[in-house]
């Protein structure tokens, strides 16, 4: 699934020139987008939703005075930044591992406010589904290709 090689068929209207570059009908060099796997897409979606919820949780924890407001905002901000990195780089194994560790942090946030155990467990379930089923379907699609 990475770069396009000269053995791969190209979409209609594109061809390879003498240098091996992809060109359109007018002779302009083109670059095809990288194909995203299902695991990458699903993990990015789960992390994007979790970023939104983490923002609201940080505001809620600060408002309830469950923790010091500065701690809530800084902790939420760090969580959000790490989740953004994991979502943006979800094609890499290290990013999927990072997103998994963030799921553990989300579940453990229930120590600050008990309802967050449920929220964290829900996101952990979504994340597990994204990783397991996304990987399974990506492998099946690779065999069929």
Automatic annotation (TrEMBL):
The keyword Membrane applies. This is DUF4233 domain-containing protein. The keyword Nucleotide-binding does not apply. The chain crosses the membrane at residues 41-64, 70-87, 92-109, 115-134. Keywords: Membrane, Transmembrane, Transmembrane helix. InterPro entries: DUF4233 (IPR025327).
């Amino acid at each position: 699934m990475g770069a396009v090689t000269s053995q791969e068929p190209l979409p209609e209207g594109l061809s390879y020139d003498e240098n091996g570059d992809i060109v359109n009908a007018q002779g302009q060099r083109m670059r095809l987008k990288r194909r995203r796997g299902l695991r990458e897409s699903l993990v990015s979606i789960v992390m994007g939703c979790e970023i939104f919820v983490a923002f609201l949780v940080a505001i809620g924890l600060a408002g309830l005075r469950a923790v010091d407001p500065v701690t809530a905002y800084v902790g939420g901000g760090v969580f959000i930044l790490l989740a953004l990195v994991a979502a943006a780089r979800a094609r890499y194994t290290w990013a999927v591992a990072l997103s998994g560790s963030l799921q553990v942090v989300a579940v453990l946030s229930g120590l600050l406010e008990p309802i967050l155990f449920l929220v964290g467990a829900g996101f952990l379930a979504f994340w597990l589904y994204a990783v397991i089923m996304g990987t399974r379907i990506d492998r099946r699609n690779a065999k069929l290709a």
